[in-house]
Prior knowledge:
Low-confidence stretches: 11-26, 275-324
Radius of gyration: 38 Å
Strand content: 25-35%
Order of helices and strands: EEEEEEEEEEEEHEEEEEEEEEEEHHHH
Mean pLDDT: 79
Helix content: 10-25%
Number of strands: 23
Largest sheet: 7 strands, antiparallel
Amino acid sequence: MPLTLLVRSAIVPQSPSGQESRAGAPGAPPGLTFDGARVVIGRGQGCDVRLPDPSVSQRHATVRVEGGKHSLVDEGSTNGTFVGGVRLSPQTPRALRTGDLIRVGRVWLEARIDQTPPTRDLAVATRELALMLVAQAMEDQGDDVVPKVRVVEGPDAGVVLPLIEEGRAYIVGRDDACDLPLADADASREHVQLVRRGPAVLVRDPGSKNGALLGESRLARDRDVAWRSALMMRVGRTVLALEEPVAQALGALEGAADEPMVEGDAPPEPAPVSLQRPETAATEAAPPPSSAPSSAGMTSAAPIAQVRAASAANATTVRSSSRKGWSATDIAVLIAATVLIAASVAGLVWLLKT
């Protein structure tokens, strides 16, 4: 059965100020869903769940699946692996159940074992999750997270284009109307198009005359390609570099030594995310109906039913109380019945004597 690991908290203290910041967005916590025999949790680039916090070891823990059962194993981490408040012994499997809260270093995870479809393109999703956590921490600390394109060779060397707006198409070319106009006779009027999608920057050749090179590869026309900061892009005689503050911070975090935690450094255990359907959870969370009707909000079926029940009970009480006293009619009927019975008895006695 697929395993989902939700990131419930993270602290990434990697800013010039040295301050700590918790990463976490409102709403549903981010996570990844796996359907394999082993899931590696750690800070290293090759992990399935990359947690960019120096309190997390390069290879911190693994989840193993055998016979349909999941178990959690600490891989000899610096700061230990916890399920709730219980620390696991290194290399000793511990059964993992849905709803379990796992702490690796300063980061809390929550396990779900259900029929959630596995995450597509896990390698890409894993990196994007790590970048998102770093970006959130940097934004909390006021650090610059905007990717930028810098001209490193050519007539416009030193010019910088910030990719501020996510989803917007930025045009690089010789036309003065371009977002990054180039004084390069070998560049087309609109040579390449750049779009920022979350933590990624996509580049496309919309049909330039001389084409563009990304690293050693020629860009295919009218097809988006992810641009990584390790690769330079050549447009005519111009060379462009991509500066990604978030990716640079992630790389620094992944290459750092483990940071031993001190007492009281662990964040508090988060409340588990509800695994119920919203309508079920709402029903079970509702308080039991009161025996007395409420005077506020008489629009739902339950309060209306309570009012009707109370009215019926009051009517029954009134009818019962009306029989407690004797009316004049009741007394007259009782006297007439007594006289009739007495007359019948007298007649019967006379007949017996005759």
